[in-house]
Each structure stands twice: as structure tokens, then as C-alpha cells.
Design brief:
By secondary structure, the chain is mainly alpha-helical. It has helices at residues 16-25, 40-43, 49-55, 70-96, 100-129; strands at residues 5-7, 30-34, 59-64. Strands 1-2-3 form a 3-stranded parallel beta sheet, with helices on one face. The chain starts with a strand and ends in a 5-residue tail after the last helix.
């Protein structure tokens, strides 16, 4: 038996239970769900949708994750990568020079910069990890 599926939001603002009932009634076996919080005000808690779909005999084939701010997150990741490379370069630079005074100054600057970059890195991690995947 071939199974067919459809995205559960098919363009008409109706209650979720009615939507799932109609999807099953016209012969679909699977649904794709939106897994973001952008429409929580209308659709309710996304965590209830899979069980609701299954209660109508529908399988949840997959979910679509939010894609807003994707470019912004990629830019932050690039900044994080560049800062990490600079951090490694600064630490390497400090180790290469064998002049005690210069080494002390560079090491001090590197430590200060490393502390600053660790703060930035932690903030960027919070941006990526945050509450996106809850």
C-alpha cells in the first residue's frame, strides 16, 4: 500500500482536530508538522500536535524546523570561527617569541584577549543553543 502525506497547514484557518480529521478523511496517511513557535498563538503547543495527529490515524512523517534568522546564525558562526582562529594565533604567537619582556606583554594581552573572546564565544553559544530546539 502506498502511503501519502501532506503538510498539516493546507491554507485554511480551522481547528487542528478538524484539520487532522479532514486530512485523514480525504485519504492521507502521513502529515508533516511545523516545529516552530511562530504560530503557537493559533495552533497551540506544538508538542501536542503529534499525538493529536496519531489520534486520527495519521503518522507524523517529519517536521519542518524554523528557518528564520538562518543567515544571521551562519554569520555568528563565522565570527565565532574567526575569533577562535585569532585566539589560537595569539596563543601561538606568544609561545614562539622567546624574549621575556615581549613574551610577558604578549602573554598578558593574549590572556586578556582570550578572556574577552571566551565571553564572546559563550554568548554566541547561547545564541545557537538558546531555546531553539526545545
Amino acid at each position: 500500500m502506498n502511503k501519502t502525506g501532506i503538510y498539516y497547514w493546507f491554507g485554511y484557518p480551522i481547528e487542528n482536530k478538524e484539520r487532522f480529521r479532514l486530512i485523514k478523511e480525504v485519504g492521507f496517511n502521513n502529515v508533516l508538522l511545523w516545529w516552530g513557535d511562530e504560530f503557537a498563538e493559533y495552533d497551540g503547543d506544538k508538542n501536542h500536535l503529534p499525538e493529536m495527529a496519531r489520534s486520527f490515524g495519521l503518522e507524523v512523517e517529519n517536521v519542518h524546523a524554523p528557518f528564520d534568522k538562518t543567515n544571521e546564525n551562519i554569520k555568528k558562526l563565522r565570527v565565532y570561527t574567526i575569533l577562535s582562529i585569532i585566539n589560537i594565533a595569539l596563543m601561538s604567537f606568544a609561545l614562539l617569541f622567546n624574549f621575556y619582556v615581549l613574551l610577558s606583554i604578549v602573554a598578558f594581552i593574549a590572556i586578556i584577549l582570550r578572556m574577552f573572546m571566551m565571553i564572546l564565544i559563550n554568548r554566541l553559544k547561547k545564541c545557537f543553543i538558546g531555546n531553539q530546539f526545545e
